[in-house]
Every structure is written in C-alpha cells, then in structure tokens.
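User: Show me a protein chain along with its predicted structure.
Assistant: Here is one chain, sequence first, then structure tokens.
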Amino acid sequence: WPRLAIPLPGLRPRLQLERRCSLTSATCLRDVYPKTGRSGIMVFLVWETTFTNQRGEKVAEVRESHVAKE
C-alpha cells in the first residue's frame, strides 16, 4: 500500500494498488443515531466509502462519522 501524505482515519486497505490503476468510489450512509450529551441531543451520521479498481475488486474502504446538533 503506498504511503499517504495525509493520514486517513478509518481507512482499511484491501488490495495493493497498481500503477495506472483506475479507481471508482461509492459512498453510502450506513447509520444514523441520536445521542444525548451535555449540550443536548446530537445526531451521528456514519458514512462508508468503498473504492474499487477497474476489475471491480474492492481496493479500500473508509468509514467516517459526522456529528450534527439537533
């Protein structure tokens, strides 16, 4: 797996990248859930992005969580 200049939390590499590899990404909203904190109700959104190569093989996945105050 090549070294990345910027660390990506939640990145899960699956396959080695090749030179001139063509990547496609697809992002999906995996989960939405509320939590009560000191400042009130917060809503958590969990997004998952999957990267596939030109042969349709899964190369990597990234899972990210975002918080919104209700």
